[in-house]
Each structure stands twice: as structure tokens, then as C-alpha cells.
Amino acid sequence: MKHTPGPWEARFNLHGQAVVNGIHGIQVAHFGDNSVYSKDGSYSISKEEAMANARLFAAAPDLLEAAKDILDLKRTGREAWEKLKAAIKKAGGSGVTP
What we know:
Layout: E1 9-12, E2 18-21, E3 27-30, H1 47-58, H2 60-71, H3 78-90
Antiparallel strand pairs: 1-2, 2-3
Helix pairs in contact: 2-3
């Protein structure tokens, strides 16, 4: 089975919950805020953490494509490197140098 086609976008829905939407606005994932708890109730996810999770999740198709490009010897070089850096940035990664 193939995953829902990208690009995916992380955003807050009308209820203020972090979600990831695919093409045509189809919801791919829902991360909630302060509504997900550990089994013992000692940890809940903040709105900020939910959005960080959503950004990382939304970057998955870009990261997969960039990784495939790096492995494809025909696409090595600047184009593949720039695609990989953009995917890392989309995922919320920092420290990526130009």
C-alpha cells in the first residue's frame, strides 16, 4: 500500500488542534492538544509540542523523496542536497547550513 500523496501541510484546525492535511485538504493525521495523555496520566501534549509533531510528520514525504534522491547516483549534487535541506527545515530541524 502507498501512503497518501504529498505534499502534506501542518496547521491548526478550526478547533485549534494540530493536524496534517494532504492534497485536497484530506486529513492525514491529527495530533490534538492537551488531549493526549500517557497511560498513567502524568504527561500531556501541549499545543506547541503537537504542532512540532505535526510539522515533523508533514515533512515525511519530502524527507523520503530527498533520501531517495541522495541514494540515486544520477541525482547527486546540488539539487538533491537542496531538497534534503528543505525537507529537514520543513520538519523543524535547525542547524542546517546553506
